[in-house]
Sequence to fold (377 residues):
Amino acid sequence: MVKPNDTTPGKSNGSSKAAVLDLEAVDVTATHELRARGVDRATPAGAVAQAFAARMALPKNVPWTLRNDRTGAILDEESPIGEQVETGSRVVLTPKSHLGAKA
Amino acid sequence: MSATLLSGSGHASPPLEVILPRCGFSRRGGEWLRGKLRIERHGQWLSLTVPAPTGEDPLGRAGRPGLWKHEEGGEASRVVFPLPVSILQVDESADPDQDVPLEFEGGQSPLEACLRWALATLTGESPEGWQPPGEEALAFWKKDHHLTVQHGSVVRQIEVIRAGGRLSLRVALVNEVPDGLPEARAKWLQALLLDAQSSWHLVRTAITAERAAVAEVELSGLPAAVGPHLFRAALDSLRWVVAGLAETAEFLVDPDVPSQALELCPPPRRSSAK
Fold:
Protein backbone atom coordinates (compact mmCIF):
# COMPACT_ATOMS: atom_id res chain seq x y z
CA MET A 1 0.00 0.00 0.00
CA VAL A 2 1.29 3.38 -0.87
CA LYS A 3 1.00 5.66 2.10
CA PRO A 4 1.63 9.31 1.38
CA ASN A 5 3.53 10.95 4.14
CA ASP A 6 5.01 14.34 4.78
CA THR A 7 8.21 15.00 6.57
CA THR A 8 10.16 18.15 7.14
CA PRO A 9 13.80 17.30 7.74
CA GLY A 10 14.85 20.88 8.17
CA LYS A 11 16.36 23.64 6.10
CA SER A 12 19.35 25.86 6.48
CA ASN A 13 18.27 27.20 9.83
CA GLY A 14 15.66 29.45 8.45
CA SER A 15 18.14 31.69 6.75
CA SER A 16 17.18 31.02 3.14
CA LYS A 17 14.60 28.93 1.35
CA ALA A 18 17.10 28.53 -1.51
CA ALA A 19 19.25 26.51 0.87
CA VAL A 20 16.65 23.75 1.13
CA LEU A 21 15.14 21.08 -1.09
CA ASP A 22 11.74 19.53 -1.46
CA LEU A 23 11.96 15.86 -2.39
CA GLU A 24 9.74 12.91 -3.13
CA ALA A 25 10.99 9.61 -1.80
CA VAL A 26 9.82 6.07 -2.37
CA ASP A 27 11.25 2.81 -1.14
CA VAL A 28 12.55 0.33 -3.68
CA THR A 29 9.39 -1.81 -3.47
CA ALA A 30 7.18 1.25 -3.95
CA THR A 31 5.37 0.31 -0.77
CA HIS A 32 6.11 3.53 1.08
CA GLU A 33 6.21 7.03 -0.25
CA LEU A 34 6.76 10.39 1.35
CA ARG A 35 7.24 14.03 0.52
CA ALA A 36 10.08 15.75 2.30
CA ARG A 37 9.97 19.52 2.59
CA GLY A 38 12.88 21.74 3.50
CA VAL A 39 15.76 19.29 3.37
CA ASP A 40 18.95 21.23 4.08
CA ARG A 41 21.12 21.09 0.97
CA ALA A 42 24.21 20.69 3.13
CA THR A 43 22.97 17.48 4.75
CA PRO A 44 24.91 14.37 3.69
CA ALA A 45 22.76 12.11 1.51
CA GLY A 46 23.45 9.16 3.79
CA ALA A 47 21.86 10.89 6.79
CA VAL A 48 18.84 11.83 4.69
CA ALA A 49 18.49 8.20 3.58
CA GLN A 50 18.54 6.92 7.15
CA ALA A 51 15.96 9.49 8.22
CA PHE A 52 13.67 8.55 5.32
CA ALA A 53 14.04 4.87 6.22
CA ALA A 54 13.07 5.62 9.82
CA ARG A 55 10.03 7.61 8.68
CA MET A 56 8.97 4.68 6.48
CA ALA A 57 9.49 2.30 9.40
CA LEU A 58 11.98 0.28 7.38
CA PRO A 59 14.48 -1.98 9.17
CA LYS A 60 17.07 -0.07 11.17
CA ASN A 61 19.77 -2.68 10.75
CA VAL A 62 19.99 -2.13 7.01
CA PRO A 63 22.26 0.51 5.46
CA TRP A 64 20.13 2.58 3.10
CA THR A 65 21.15 4.66 0.17
CA LEU A 66 19.35 7.00 -2.23
CA ARG A 67 19.09 6.70 -6.00
CA ASN A 68 18.08 9.54 -8.29
CA ASP A 69 14.97 8.17 -10.00
CA ARG A 70 15.52 10.27 -13.12
CA THR A 71 19.19 9.51 -13.76
CA GLY A 72 19.55 6.24 -11.91
CA ALA A 73 22.64 7.53 -10.15
CA ILE A 74 23.32 6.33 -6.63
CA LEU A 75 23.93 9.33 -4.39
CA ASP A 76 27.23 9.61 -2.57
CA GLU A 77 26.25 9.27 1.05
CA GLU A 78 29.06 11.48 2.31
CA SER A 79 28.36 14.39 -0.04
CA PRO A 80 25.74 17.08 0.50
CA ILE A 81 22.43 16.05 -1.03
CA GLY A 82 22.01 19.52 -2.52
CA GLU A 83 25.01 18.90 -4.76
CA GLN A 84 23.45 15.73 -6.17
CA VAL A 85 19.76 16.37 -6.75
CA GLU A 86 17.56 19.36 -7.47
CA THR A 87 14.49 20.40 -5.58
CA GLY A 88 11.46 18.43 -6.71
CA SER A 89 13.54 15.35 -7.48
CA ARG A 90 12.24 11.88 -6.81
CA VAL A 91 14.66 9.59 -4.99
CA VAL A 92 14.44 5.87 -4.39
CA LEU A 93 15.43 4.43 -1.05
CA THR A 94 17.46 1.32 -1.68
CA PRO A 95 19.25 -1.09 0.63
CA LYS A 96 22.97 -1.11 0.07
CA SER A 97 23.88 -4.51 -1.34
CA HIS A 98 27.19 -6.17 -1.93
CA LEU A 99 27.41 -8.74 -4.69
CA GLY A 100 29.80 -11.50 -3.83
CA ALA A 101 32.18 -11.74 -0.91
CA LYS A 102 33.35 -8.67 0.92
CA ALA A 103 36.70 -7.50 -0.42
CA MET B 1 32.57 27.97 48.31
CA SER B 2 36.13 27.99 47.16
CA ALA B 3 37.85 26.24 44.31
CA THR B 4 41.23 26.17 42.75
CA LEU B 5 41.75 26.21 39.02
CA LEU B 6 44.32 24.33 37.05
CA SER B 7 45.96 25.60 33.93
CA GLY B 8 46.35 23.42 30.86
CA SER B 9 49.79 22.43 32.07
CA GLY B 10 48.49 21.49 35.48
CA HIS B 11 49.75 24.50 37.42
CA ALA B 12 47.41 26.07 39.91
CA SER B 13 45.79 29.32 38.82
CA PRO B 14 44.28 31.90 41.14
CA PRO B 15 41.26 30.65 43.08
CA LEU B 16 37.85 32.30 42.83
CA GLU B 17 38.69 34.56 45.76
CA VAL B 18 41.45 36.11 43.67
CA ILE B 19 39.84 36.14 40.24
CA LEU B 20 36.39 37.47 41.11
CA PRO B 21 37.58 40.69 42.80
CA ARG B 22 39.80 41.33 39.78
CA CYS B 23 36.65 41.26 37.67
CA GLY B 24 34.84 43.68 39.94
CA PHE B 25 32.93 41.22 42.11
CA SER B 26 32.77 41.47 45.87
CA ARG B 27 31.55 39.04 48.45
CA ARG B 28 28.43 39.99 50.33
CA GLY B 29 26.61 37.59 52.62
CA GLY B 30 28.24 34.55 51.09
CA GLU B 31 27.44 35.65 47.52
CA TRP B 32 29.64 37.10 44.83
CA LEU B 33 27.98 40.22 43.45
CA ARG B 34 28.80 43.04 41.06
CA GLY B 35 25.92 45.47 41.07
CA LYS B 36 22.91 43.39 40.04
CA LEU B 37 25.15 40.67 38.67
CA ARG B 38 25.35 37.53 40.74
CA ILE B 39 27.44 34.39 40.40
CA GLU B 40 25.75 31.06 41.11
CA ARG B 41 27.09 27.55 41.15
CA HIS B 42 24.69 24.66 40.45
CA GLY B 43 26.27 21.27 39.98
CA GLN B 44 28.71 21.41 37.12
CA TRP B 45 27.64 24.85 35.96
CA LEU B 46 28.69 28.32 37.00
CA SER B 47 26.28 31.05 35.98
CA LEU B 48 26.28 34.81 35.94
CA THR B 49 22.74 36.07 36.42
CA VAL B 50 21.04 39.43 36.30
CA PRO B 51 17.33 40.29 36.52
CA ALA B 52 15.69 40.36 33.09
CA PRO B 53 14.70 43.78 31.78
CA THR B 54 11.01 44.44 32.25
CA GLY B 55 8.96 43.39 29.27
CA GLU B 56 11.83 41.67 27.50
CA ASP B 57 10.83 39.20 24.79
CA PRO B 58 12.13 35.92 26.25
CA LEU B 59 12.91 34.64 22.76
CA GLY B 60 14.26 37.93 21.50
CA ARG B 61 17.98 37.55 22.18
CA ALA B 62 18.86 35.45 19.13
CA GLY B 63 21.92 36.71 17.32
CA ARG B 64 23.25 38.81 20.18
CA PRO B 65 26.88 38.10 21.10
CA GLY B 66 27.70 35.88 24.02
CA LEU B 67 25.79 33.23 25.91
CA TRP B 68 23.35 35.55 27.67
CA LYS B 69 19.81 34.20 27.50
CA HIS B 70 16.46 34.80 29.09
CA GLU B 71 15.22 32.25 31.58
CA GLU B 72 11.84 32.01 33.21
CA GLY B 73 10.92 29.96 36.21
CA GLY B 74 11.24 30.34 39.92
CA GLU B 75 10.46 33.74 41.38
CA ALA B 76 11.38 36.03 38.51
CA SER B 77 12.69 36.14 34.98
CA ARG B 78 16.40 36.60 34.64
CA VAL B 79 19.18 36.72 32.11
CA VAL B 80 21.82 34.05 32.51
CA PHE B 81 25.33 33.44 31.17
CA PRO B 82 26.06 29.75 31.85
CA LEU B 83 29.54 28.24 31.91
CA PRO B 84 30.36 24.54 32.28
CA VAL B 85 32.79 24.13 35.16
CA SER B 86 34.60 21.43 33.20
CA ILE B 87 36.07 23.97 30.78
CA LEU B 88 37.17 26.17 33.68
CA GLN B 89 39.36 23.35 34.97
CA VAL B 90 38.12 23.41 38.54
CA ASP B 91 40.02 21.01 40.75
CA GLU B 92 37.26 19.81 43.07
CA SER B 93 39.71 17.96 45.30
CA ALA B 94 41.88 20.97 46.05
CA ASP B 95 42.05 22.19 49.61
CA PRO B 96 41.70 25.96 49.43
CA ASP B 97 43.56 26.38 52.70
CA GLN B 98 46.56 24.56 51.32
CA ASP B 99 46.73 26.16 47.91
CA VAL B 100 48.94 29.10 47.16
CA PRO B 101 47.39 31.50 44.65
CA LEU B 102 49.56 31.71 41.56
CA GLU B 103 49.27 33.75 38.41
CA PHE B 104 47.93 31.74 35.48
CA GLU B 105 50.48 30.96 32.85
CA GLY B 106 50.09 33.12 29.79
CA GLY B 107 47.81 35.71 31.37
CA GLN B 108 44.11 35.22 32.13
CA SER B 109 42.84 31.92 33.47
CA PRO B 110 39.91 30.32 31.61
CA LEU B 111 37.54 31.53 34.32
CA GLU B 112 38.76 35.10 34.21
CA ALA B 113 38.66 35.12 30.41
CA CYS B 114 35.08 33.82 30.46
CA LEU B 115 34.01 36.34 33.10
CA ARG B 116 35.42 39.18 31.04
CA TRP B 117 33.63 37.74 27.98
CA ALA B 118 30.36 37.72 29.88
CA LEU B 119 30.84 41.26 31.16
CA ALA B 120 31.75 42.52 27.69
CA THR B 121 28.70 40.98 26.03
CA LEU B 122 26.21 41.94 28.71
CA THR B 123 25.40 45.07 26.73
CA GLY B 124 24.90 43.11 23.52
CA GLU B 125 28.29 43.90 21.99
CA SER B 126 31.23 41.67 21.13
CA PRO B 127 34.47 42.35 23.01
CA GLU B 128 36.40 45.10 21.29
CA GLY B 129 38.80 43.77 18.69
CA TRP B 130 37.60 40.18 18.92
CA GLN B 131 37.73 38.16 15.73
CA PRO B 132 36.30 34.68 15.14
CA PRO B 133 38.81 31.84 14.85
CA GLY B 134 40.21 30.99 11.43
CA GLU B 135 38.92 28.19 9.23
CA GLU B 136 41.86 26.00 10.17
CA ALA B 137 41.16 26.34 13.87
CA LEU B 138 37.46 25.70 13.33
CA ALA B 139 38.24 22.58 11.32
CA PHE B 140 40.26 21.30 14.27
CA TRP B 141 37.49 22.15 16.71
CA LYS B 142 34.94 20.31 14.56
CA LYS B 143 37.13 17.24 14.16
CA ASP B 144 35.13 14.11 15.02
CA HIS B 145 32.12 16.27 15.95
CA HIS B 146 29.61 15.97 13.14
CA LEU B 147 27.34 18.83 12.16
CA THR B 148 24.65 16.43 10.95
CA VAL B 149 22.09 15.25 13.48
CA GLN B 150 20.12 12.17 12.46
CA HIS B 151 17.78 10.90 15.11
CA GLY B 152 15.12 8.49 13.91
CA SER B 153 13.21 10.21 11.13
CA VAL B 154 14.63 13.60 12.06
CA VAL B 155 17.66 14.91 10.24
CA ARG B 156 19.12 18.36 10.76
CA GLN B 157 22.26 20.19 9.79
CA ILE B 158 23.97 22.43 12.33
CA GLU B 159 25.19 25.57 10.65
CA VAL B 160 28.42 27.25 11.72
CA ILE B 161 28.00 30.96 11.16
CA ARG B 162 31.36 32.69 10.93
CA ALA B 163 30.98 36.06 9.32
CA GLY B 164 31.01 39.72 10.20
CA GLY B 165 32.92 39.26 13.43
CA ARG B 166 30.44 36.66 14.59
CA LEU B 167 30.69 32.99 15.54
CA SER B 168 27.48 31.10 16.11
CA LEU B 169 26.06 27.60 15.86
CA ARG B 170 22.47 27.35 14.72
CA VAL B 171 20.06 24.57 13.83
CA ALA B 172 16.44 24.63 12.71
CA LEU B 173 13.95 22.73 14.84
CA VAL B 174 11.10 23.62 12.47
CA ASN B 175 12.02 24.90 9.04
CA GLU B 176 8.88 26.95 8.50
CA VAL B 177 6.24 27.84 11.06
CA PRO B 178 2.99 28.34 9.11
CA ASP B 179 1.69 31.90 9.06
CA GLY B 180 -1.80 30.70 9.86
CA LEU B 181 -0.85 28.59 12.84
CA PRO B 182 -3.72 28.63 15.34
CA GLU B 183 -3.05 30.77 18.40
CA ALA B 184 -3.11 27.85 20.80
CA ARG B 185 -0.61 25.93 18.70
CA ALA B 186 1.63 29.00 18.51
CA LYS B 187 1.55 29.28 22.29
CA TRP B 188 2.46 25.62 22.63
CA LEU B 189 5.40 26.14 20.30
CA GLN B 190 6.53 29.18 22.23
CA ALA B 191 6.20 27.24 25.49
CA LEU B 192 8.32 24.46 24.02
CA LEU B 193 11.01 26.88 22.87
CA LEU B 194 11.01 28.71 26.20
CA ASP B 195 11.26 25.46 28.06
CA ALA B 196 14.16 24.37 25.90
CA GLN B 197 15.93 27.66 26.45
CA SER B 198 15.53 27.45 30.19
CA SER B 199 16.27 23.74 30.42
CA TRP B 200 19.31 23.38 28.19
CA HIS B 201 22.42 25.25 29.21
CA LEU B 202 24.11 27.26 26.46
CA VAL B 203 21.11 27.06 24.10
CA ARG B 204 18.95 29.97 23.01
CA THR B 205 15.80 29.52 20.94
CA ALA B 206 13.92 31.84 18.64
CA ILE B 207 11.52 32.14 15.76
CA THR B 208 13.40 33.93 13.01
CA ALA B 209 12.18 36.50 10.52
CA GLU B 210 12.01 33.64 7.99
CA ARG B 211 9.54 31.88 10.31
CA ALA B 212 11.93 29.12 11.31
CA ALA B 213 12.06 27.88 14.89
CA VAL B 214 15.76 27.63 15.68
CA ALA B 215 18.13 26.74 18.48
CA GLU B 216 21.49 28.49 18.65
CA VAL B 217 24.60 28.90 20.72
CA GLU B 218 26.16 32.32 20.22
CA LEU B 219 29.92 32.17 20.67
CA SER B 220 30.89 35.64 19.49
CA GLY B 221 33.60 36.89 21.83
CA LEU B 222 34.59 33.36 22.81
CA PRO B 223 37.96 33.42 24.62
CA ALA B 224 40.72 31.36 23.03
CA ALA B 225 41.43 29.73 26.38
CA VAL B 226 38.17 27.75 26.23
CA GLY B 227 37.48 27.87 22.47
CA PRO B 228 37.56 24.21 21.42
CA HIS B 229 36.01 22.93 24.63
CA LEU B 230 33.05 25.25 24.61
CA PHE B 231 32.56 24.89 20.86
CA ARG B 232 32.26 21.11 21.23
CA ALA B 233 29.99 21.46 24.26
CA ALA B 234 27.79 23.76 22.19
CA LEU B 235 27.62 21.26 19.35
CA ASP B 236 26.63 18.51 21.76
CA SER B 237 23.97 20.72 23.31
CA LEU B 238 22.39 21.41 19.93
CA ARG B 239 22.48 17.73 19.03
CA TRP B 240 20.59 16.88 22.22
CA VAL B 241 18.06 19.64 21.64
CA VAL B 242 17.37 18.40 18.11
CA ALA B 243 17.05 14.81 19.30
CA GLY B 244 14.72 15.81 22.10
CA LEU B 245 12.55 18.50 20.57
CA ALA B 246 12.57 18.61 16.77
CA GLU B 247 9.91 15.95 16.30
CA THR B 248 7.66 17.52 18.93
CA ALA B 249 8.09 20.94 17.36
CA GLU B 250 7.20 19.55 13.94
CA PHE B 251 4.11 17.95 15.39
CA LEU B 252 2.99 21.20 17.01
CA VAL B 253 3.10 23.15 13.76
CA ASP B 254 1.60 20.45 11.53
CA PRO B 255 -1.90 21.64 10.59
CA ASP B 256 -2.76 18.17 9.33
CA VAL B 257 -2.55 16.69 12.81
CA PRO B 258 -5.72 17.51 14.74
CA SER B 259 -5.50 17.52 18.52
CA GLN B 260 -8.10 18.66 20.99
CA ALA B 261 -5.46 18.67 23.72
CA LEU B 262 -3.47 21.29 21.83
CA GLU B 263 -6.49 23.57 21.75
CA LEU B 264 -5.99 24.13 25.47
CA CYS B 265 -3.49 26.56 26.94
CA PRO B 266 0.01 25.24 27.62
CA PRO B 267 0.73 24.19 31.22
CA PRO B 268 2.99 26.28 33.50
CA ARG B 269 6.69 26.01 32.81
CA ARG B 270 9.15 23.93 34.78
CA SER B 271 12.45 25.48 35.75
CA SER B 272 15.03 22.71 36.00
CA ALA B 273 18.11 22.94 33.79
CA LYS B 274 20.06 20.17 32.05
Summary: The CA atoms of residues 158 and 171 of chain B lie 5 Å apart. Helices of chain B lie at 16-22, 85-88, 110-121, 135-142, 183-199, 227-253.
